[in-house]
Amino acid sequence: MSRFGPADAPPAGDRESMLDVLQGFIHELRAAGLPVSMTENLDAMRAVEHIDIAERDTFKAALGATLVKHHHHWRAFETVFDVYFSLHAAGIGEEGEDGEGFDLESMEAMRAQGGGAMGEVSPEELAQMLLQALTNMDREQLRRLAGMAVDRFAGMEPGRPVGGTYYLYRTLRQLDFDGLTARMMGQARERGEIGADDLAERLAQEEFQARLQQLKELVEAEIRRRLVADRGAEAMARTLRKPLPEDVDFMHASREEMLALQRAIYPLTRALAARLAQRRRRRNRGHLDFRSTVRHSLSYGGVPAEPKFRHPRPSRPEIMVVADISGSVASFARFTLQFVYAMASQFSKVRSWVFIDGIDEVTRFFQESDDIGEAVHRVNTEADVVWVDGHSDYGHAFEVFHEHHYKEVTPKTSIILLGDARNNYHASQNWVLKELQQRARHLYWLNPEPRGYWDTGDSIISEFGIYCDGVYECRNLRQLEQFVTTVVEG
Amino acid sequence: MADRFKSVDDVVERLRTVDYLADPNIAGVVYLADRLEKPILVEGPAGVGKTELAKALSDVTGARLIRLQCYEGLDESKALYEWNYKKQLLRIQADREHETSWAEVESDIFSEPFLLTRPLLEAIRAEEPIVLLIDEVDRVEIETEALLLEVLSDFQVSIPELGTIAGKQRPLVVMTSNNTRELSEALKRRCLYLHLDYPDLEREKDIVRVRVPEVDEELAEQVARVVRSVRQLELKKAPSISETIDWARTLLYLGKNEIDPEAIGETLHVLLKYQSDIAKARKELQVEGGPLPARSP
After folding, report:
1. How does residue B288 score in pLDDT terms, banded at 50, 70 and 90?
2. Interchain contact, A50 vs B36, CB within 8 Å
3. pTM of whole model > 0.90?
4. What value does the mean pLDDT of chain A take?
5. Which pLDDT tens digit goes with each residue over B199-211?
6. Nearest residue to B229 via CA among B270, B276, B282
7. What is the mean pLDDT of residues A344-373?
8. With an 8 Å Cβ cutoff, are B28 and A271 in contact?
9. pLDDT per residue over B133-162, tens digit each?
10. Number of CB pairs < 8 Å for A and B?
């Protein structure tokens, strides 16, 4: 691989092709949703001229530093990077002699003959070698073994348009991570490396899991590399394209995505709180305070030289959250509750109710525990929300809410209703909302469904919507953040 | 800069001489910043060595460190320059008897001797090599951020009375942000972006060994493992590198050569600063400890 230093000008053709690859790469980043501007594009071009692109880590650092300016875009960047430059990586140092010239078809042929270097290793031997490599943490050996494992277990077929998760699953199932962990633990115990207490046990376990995680990443990289070799970077990148964390749809988030979102909540709310506090403080100029101005004008002989302004009182709204937690929207409700409580310092008071067809106040769970995650868990397990059959009945829930809590709603209260308004053809009882709206400061509705689905089937969002101050589509973190800003400001 | 880096490896080696362990990503970005003469924007959780990076860079390059600590309400007169108002007044008063023309006085009081330089202007006018650290840039308001743009992209300052002052050389600029708010696109575009996160086990272990040399290999390994375990919990504030180092020191002072549940229970408050976090970690790691400290604010 040639080196594109400023000193030794590279052959023009090579340079051209590198630029082409980079342009494709940047194009794909944009397609994945990353905002890459023209200047950043040029910076990246300049940056790669200064570094040795054969050094994979440096090359990645250079592209990352110039093109990715948000931390939560890093994962998306990494995926695209791996796809675009995995083949280039194959030739260089890291991989050694056995990395080059992969070709699925010849591999297939080799397997068909039952020969070749890989065929001679039995699964037991492979497991034994893996165990050894993991114990000594020999990365080179692990990489080789990951390659072998993929050969043996993944059963890759050329031309199949899959993202690789399937192959990964097949390979990992055969490798039996749980068994490996147990064997490593056993060995460590024999060597007397683990003390008697639970803590040592836990730490050792975590260490082995971390090593296995590395193995998993190696296997994944290997599979990805072969897929790219088979189908080309562009097609692969398209298959792997995923929404950025702020655009992940609550209703369809995978378990992993949901976990990532949960982790994002706390820093996000902190940032949001800081921004709102700043904005509130800066808005300290209110209307002209006439009386005060006249009073102060006396010291200037009656000339109102120094206008005085009223300081608007810092308004911290009181929040009531009423959330539907029936199956279809449960994750959304959980998430939003977590978000609102993480923001609790921004509000003078937060109370919350959850319902399906019965309704239950859950404020107590949040007051009793410092840990929001735990409180949400208790909401799910302990709240009494089923009245008849456990199918959403907004009408009944609202009626009960009105009966018990109507008097507690004050002109300072903002009420936030969460749900998809799929009422299973029950009566809507939307007069409740009408009365609530008249009494409360604001009444908002957040709907996690895409706008296009509203009022289809048993959704009666507009029947409720006419009495709300705003009905918002709230499908991802970005929209939720926007909404919270509106509420705190209003 | 007087003392430029020769290669990425050079960055790593030289930073190591001042006990800063740079991973390939950090080293790569620093090297590029030096070559492209662009500022570095470092983001990441508190206590992962953002400010430390700037200090280490100034040490190894032999450059003077000029630091601008940002805070809410920071403005031009604190960041860039200010006219020495009192001195100007004195000049005018001293001139009463001489009947100098107004134009002359004006041109006189708006000249260099009456200028108070603040960190940014100081960095621009410096003759010697400089590392400019703009700390916690996310604390200034968006409007003030604009003030940095001219400095960062062209390394010059326009003063209406004096004209444009351009830098004699390009210093290495490091900006840090705790990410309490999103910085403007315009600012980010002008920078190389570096996100620092908690280090992996190996690096953390090395850091502990470098910073607390009395700690032996084994204890450092254990410390790093426990900290990794604690970071995996869902906490309000995960332990930072500096807290890891403090913890290693604490263990050393207490004469612990290896970590047992008891030692962790007693010293967990060095690592974690919230009562609920400590309680959670104790429960998860199954360690006992004395009564919890008073509730932190």
Report:
1. low
2. yes
3. no
4. 77
5. 888 889 999 999 8
6. B282
7. 81
8. no
9. 999 998 887 778 888 888 888 888 888 888
10. 114
Confidence of residue B29 (pLDDT cuts 50, 70, 90): very high
Q: What is the DSSP letter of B99?
A: T
Asked if A48 and A63 touch (Cβ cutoff 8 Å), the reply is yes
Using CA coordinates, name the residue in chain B closest to A369.
B276
Between residues 83 and 112 of chain A, which touch chain B (CB distance below 8 Å)?
none
What is the spatial distance between Cα B286 and Cα B265, in angstroms, rounded to a whole number? Answer: 9
pLDDT tens digits, A83-132:
888 665 443 333 333 434 444 444 444 444 444 444 567 777 888 888 88
3-state secondary structure chain B: CCCCCCCHHHHHHHHHHCCCCCCHHHHHHHHHHHHHCCCEEEECCCCCCHHHHHHHHHHHHCCEEEEEECCCCCCHHHHCEEECHHHHHHHHHHCHHHCCCHHHHHHHHCCHHHEEECHHHHHHHCCCCEEEEEECHHHCCHHHHHHHHHHHHHCEEEECCCEEEECCCCCEEEEEECCCCCCCHHHHHCCEEEECCCCCHHHHHHHHHHHCCCCCHHHHHHHHHHHHHHHCCCCCCCCCHHHHHHHHHHHHHCCCCCCCHHHHHHHHHHHCCCHHHHHHHHHHHCCCCCCCCCCCC
Do the beta carbons of residue A337 and residue A327 sit within 8 Å?
A: no
**Mean pLDDT computed over A428-432:** 85
Q: What is the complex's ipTM, to 2 decimals?
A: 0.83
* Listed residue (B232, B204, B254) closest to A202, CA to CA: B232
CB contact under 8 A, A58 and B31: yes
Identify all chain A residues contacting B4, using CB atoms and an 8 Å cutoff.
Answer: none
For chain B, percent of residues with pLDDT exceeding 90: 19
Side-by-side strand order, sheet with B192-195: B64-69, B130-135, B172-177, B40-43, B192-195
* Angstrom distance (rounded) from CA A122 to CA A117: 11
Q: Indicate the residue of A35, A57, A210 with minimum beta-carbon distance to B28.
A: A57
pLDDT digits (tens, 9 = 90+) for B38-79: 999 999 888 888 999 999 999 998 899 999 998 888 888 888
* Backbone dihedral region for residue B118 (phi beyond 0: left; psi -120 to 50: alpha; all else: beta): beta
Query: Which residues from A are below 8 Å from B41, CB to CB?
Result: 69
DSSP state of B137: G
- The answer to whether B179 contacts A39, with C-beta atoms less than 8 Å apart, is no
Please give the residue that has the higher pLDDT: either B280 or B69: B69
Using an 8 Å CB-CB cutoff, list chain B residues near A34: none
CB contact under 8 A, A271 and B188: no
Interchain contact, A197 vs B260, CB within 8 Å: yes
In a 3-state reduction of DSSP, which class is residue A112? helix
Q: Decide if A164 contacts A224 (C-beta within 8 A).
A: yes
Q: Check A43 against B38: CB less than 8 A apart.
A: yes
Whether residue A153 contacts residue A107, with contact meaning beta carbons closer than 8 Å, is answered with no
Give strand pairing partners of B151: none
Q: Poorest-confidence range of A342-356, B139-153, B282-296?
A: B282-296
How far A377 CA lies from chain B's nearest CA (Å)?
14
Q: Render pLDDT for B229-259 as a digit per residue (tens, 0 to 9).
A: 888 887 878 899 989 999 999 988 888 777 7
3-state class (DSSP) for residue A140:
helix
Q: Please give, rounded to a whole number of angstroms, the shortest distance from the CA of B179 to a CA of chain A.
A: 7
